[in-house]
Amino acid sequence: MKLRIVVTLKNGVLDPQGKAIEHALASLGFAGVGEARVGKLIELEVADGTDDETIDAMCRKLLANTVIENYRVERA
Amino acid sequence: MKTAVIVFPGSNCDRDIAVALESVTGTAPTMVWHRDTDLPDDIGLVAVPGGFSYGDYLRSGAIAARSPVMRAVVDAAGKGLPVLGICNGFQILTEAGLLPGALMRNRGLSFVCRDVALRVGETKSAFTSGYRPGNTIRVPVAHHDGNYVADDATLDRIEGEGQVAFRYAEPVNGSARDIAGLVNAGGNVLGMMPHPERRIEAAHGGRDGRALFEGLLARVGA
Fold first, then answer.
1. Which of B62, B100, B105 sits opposite A16 (nearest CB)?
2. How many Cα atoms occupy the beta-carbon half-sphere of A8 within 13 Å?
């Protein structure tokens, strides 16, 4: 089964890459651009029937750094 | 004092720290490959060097922190063995949970590679015992992800407990409260982005890094 794991920065964590994107879009002339936040999308193939607890452990132990990041798991 | 240096695929300051440790202790360190599961006996320090372990894939230090040898490093740190992480080594120690917080992309987005001024903090750690609190030293930095981040409660705690070993005395990377290096609650684990091992001999352009190793050697023993 295929998973999509979306890793995003926690609120309040400054995102320098997001700031650079905001400025670049503004300099291209796009008006009305608000905050940009850069995250990661990890597509992961796992054995059918892999339980939620195991998937959650994968996220906590490696895929996200929960000091600065949140994650959510989508089943494709 | 016997020492060990961990080597990951992509480490590139492992030889620098090895030369520095041999210069100060008189004994070449044992180089320990990341797949090893044990550290040598009777060592007084294990160093986690700078570089780009695993190409900085996923997050800087993330993969290295989960390698077999790091389990041995975490165990040894728990028993009080001095552990020094420099640059990528600092990133690895935070990812391994030995130090609080995380290191993010530099605020200015650029890789910063130059000498910087640091102020020595007031800690009880052997790692800063070769300096006086408030001393200013100059050592190089060379990093892209050195912007130290932690929540306010954590920052208050590490400042309150005397865990800030070094602060930048000039703007470098946007680190919270100018933190350049910190020790754990026990004082036996130090992580720092700047490179003291690159300021050991006069030929390096300065010897400001040497006191870190000499202070540790004097405290931990010959």
1. B105
2. 10
